[in-house]
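Supplementary notes for students who missed Thursday's class. We covered one full example, reproduced here. Read the sequence, then the structure, then the short commentary at the end.
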Amino acid sequence: MAEKKTARKKSTAGLTAGERAAMRDLVKERRAEAAKADGEKMLLDSVAAMKGSDRTMAQRIHALVKAAAPELAPKTWYGMPAYAKDGKVVVFFKPALKFKSRYATLGFEDAANLDAGAMWPTSYALTKLTPADEKKITALVKKASR
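Structure (token representation):
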């Protein structure tokens, strides 16, 4: 038993508290997926747990993604709001407070179809959402979900 505890400590020793929490969230998500849990409920619960501008932006991004790409399945990914196609995460929202960052992040994974030449952005820093930002996010999500 002591060996297992030592091994566990060593395996998480280099992780921050936020990273360890994200790993715990991932384990919960995998168990919920196996139990066929409601991904949108899990996403909305994660948004409800956020504070301040993180919550406001996550709520707005949820509305934008649902309107732009209703075929994407809401879920959580490492405890963060995410949207998947064929089981693969396409877009996610990383709140600033989760990892004590100065900005939130809207990110796109490999499954997103955003390829533009040999180099393109896969994530965007967010401090607030303007109408122009919302328009850009809507276009990106539409493109990513194809």
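Commentary. Residues 1-9 have pLDDT under 50 and may be disordered. The chain has one domain: 16-144. If anything here is unclear, bring it to office hours.
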